[in-house]
Design goal:
By secondary structure, this protein is of the alpha+beta class. It has a domain of 137 residues: Rossmann fold. The chain is 56% helix and 13% strand. It has a six-stranded antiparallel beta sheet.
Length: 302
């Protein structure tokens, strides 16, 4: 794979859309101090996944967006795209069959960065791994800046090892290995957490079993209590029914006695009425006799 073109728009000092074609041989950019030569190298690093704003000579990543001048207004979006020639089919992964690959990074104020490979949005890690497979990247030793040669010469063995690994084309493998180890550690932590949760759930299950047993005993005792109470209520109802029947029998006897007395009273009334009928002629005769006696007495006196 070979870098073919670098396209900048709104990145640092590049207000207009600017294309840098990287031709066969040596491509050089010449200009006075402060014209933006370093911004081109930083655009390469930024597009390849640089995450440190300090490395971009800014306090925040949004500082890479064109901030405006006295003649031009500030922009809200910055884009850098790298076009890669893959006519030799030396790529890796899903891009190995493509003749040309374009990696683009876009940042918008207050919305963060997005990465695209052939206009398909990808993760930052995907873009960084893609360049690592090409033995390059944002922190690649192949991007040699001022004083970098001296740093490599005086570097520690571990730092020199990273340069050799990148030259051998295995830096992408190390990134994938690191990612795999991170996932493995995460999986182990998840397993530990799962074991802990399992133990907690087993304790909860034991408690629930005990509660279930107690609930079963409670249901059985409650059932027995309801059965006994039902028996007691049945006996009480029977006693009440017997007392009610006795009261009804007594009431019937009293009603019968009252009926008999009423009949006797009616009979006595009839007898009294008949006797009164018999006494009436006698009373009348008595009155006549009294009248006669009184008359006789009057006659005797006169």
């Amino acid at each position: 794979m070979k870098f073919k073109k670098l396209e900048l728009s709104g990145f640092k000092s590049f207000f207009d859309k600017t294309n840098f074609f990287i031709e066969e041989g040596l491509t050089g950019i010449v200009g006075p101090n402060g014209c933006g030569k370093s911004n081109i190298v930083e655009a390469l690093r930024w597009c390849m996944g640089e995450t440190s704003a300090k490395s971009m000579r800014g306090s925040g990543m949004e500082d890479v967006i064109f901030s405006g001048t006295s003649n031009r207004p500030p922009k809200n979006i910055s884009e850098v795209a790298i076009t890669i020639d893959n006519s030799d089919k030396e790529g890796s992964g899903e891009f190995i069959e493509l003749n040309e690959i374009t990696v683009k990074r876009r940042i918008e104020r207050e919305k963060g960065s997005k990465y695209f490979i052939n206009d398909k949005e990808v993760r930052a890690k995907d873009a960084q791994t893609f360049f690592a497979d090409l033995s390059t990247g944002a922190h690649s030793p192949s991007l040699i800046s001022q004083g970098k040669i001296g740093m490599i010469v005086t570097a520690k063995p571990s730092e020199r090892k990273s340069v050799l690994e990148e030259a051998a084309g295995i830096s992408g493998i190390h990134i994938r290995r690191h990612e795999a180890e991170t996932r493995l550690n995460s999986a182990e932590n998840n397993l530990k957490r799962a074991d802990e949760l399992k133990r907690q759930q087993e304790k909860q299950l034991d408690n629930l079993k005990k509660q279930a047993e107690e609930a079963t005993k409670y249901k059985e005792i409650s059932k027995n209590i309801r059965t006994i109470e039902a028996g007691l209520y049945h006996l009480k109802i029977k006693d009440i029914e017997n007392e009610t029947n006795k009261i009804k029998e007594k009431s019937n006897e009293i009603d019968n006695d009252i009926s008999a007395i009423k009949i006797e009273i009616r009979n006595d009334s009839n007898l009294i009425e008949e006797e009164n009928k018999k006494l009436k002629p006698l009373r009348d005769r008595k009155l006549e006799n009294l009248s006669k006696i009184q008359k006789i007495n009057l006659d005797v006196e006169s």
